[in-house]
Specification:
By secondary structure, this protein is mostly beta strands. It is built from two helices and 15 strands. The chain has two domains: about 80 residues, no CATH class; about 180 residues, no CATH class. Helices cover about 10% and strands about 45% of the residues.
Length: about 260
């Protein structure tokens, strides 16, 4: 039965821009290199001292016939390459600027009986100026390691065609129309695998909004809303009031299952 023990002098740390370390082990009781390597992979911790295990290797011990010297190498976590099929997800939240010309509700001071502009914001004699507000924004990226055989010309073309489109059906828990595909960045490891980073933004579909007294407005996350105003008389004054709300589809919807790479 194989046995493994950490050797003296193991675990020297290297600091600096590229921190690293090596743990050294003595493996006995087996003539199989594969068995010795398996023992090393099972024994060497991952992570260790905040470093990620990058590789394990074994070699015959020069002074002990039938024994193996094993070395587990460690680097900063960000330096460890992903294997095919692995993925990394990053996200950010923040606010995006949106210009609106009508509010959801209005309070009037000091005279509640002042002319009613129907929620119009910044009304002047000739126009409605509106205001810029901050709206919630959620963006994330996913980096996937994909076999070279899967990144075909046809697949790259599909990714290009899906860029700037929204999901046409429920996808990753989001309702249809809530996710906007911002595009993909690809890099190849020499003649080997590909790293593909997919970028997305998500919003929220809203049903039955009330804008300027107009009810039942349904808006998907990436649709654009604008309001038409007309002059109407109210409280003895000629005022601009919303008369119609328009919801514009400015991004096409498409099938996001095409984002998955084809089977190798």
């Amino acid at each position: 039965m194989a046995a493994i023990a950490e050797m003296l002098g193991s675990g020297e740390l290297e600091s600096g821009d590229s921190p690293g370390a090596e743990l050294k082990y003595l493996i006995t009781g087996t003539s199989s290199e594969a068995t010795a390597l398996t023992e090393l992979e099972d024994e060497a911790p991952d992570p260790w001292q905040g470093l990620a295990r990058k590789s394990c290797r074994v070699a015959p011990h020069g002074e002990m016939p039938g024994a193996w010297e094993g070395v587990a190498s460690y680097v900063a976590p960000e330096e460890v390459e992903q294997e095919v099929g692995e993925s990394t997800v990053r996200f950010s939240t923040g606010g995006g600027s949106q210009h609106i010309t009508a509010s959801y509700a209005t309070k009037k001071y000091p005279n509640p009986g002042a002319p009613d502009y129907g929620g119009a914001i910044g009304v002047t004699k000739d126009s409605v100026e509106g205001v810029d507000i901050i709206t919630p924004k959620f963006e994330w990226s996913e980096t996937h390691t994909v076999a070279a055989a899967q990144v075909t010309t046809a697949y790259i073309s599909t990714l290009r065609n899906l860029t700037g489109k929204t999901n046409d059906a429920t996808w990753q828990g989001y309702q249809a129309g809530e996710v906007l595909f911002l595009g993909v960045e690809g890099s190849k490891r020499g003649d080997g695998d590909w790293e593909l980073t997919f970028n997305f933004a998500a919003g929220t579909n809203i049903a039955s909004m009330i804008i300027g007294g107009i009810t039942g407005v349904n808006k998907k996350a990436w649709e654009y809303v604008w309001v038409r105003f007309e002059d109407k008389e109210d409280a003895g004054a000629l005022v601009k009031q919303p008369t119609a709300v328009y919801v514009e589809e400015v991004y096409e919807e498409d099938d996001f299952t095409g984002l998955e790479p084809p089977a190798p």
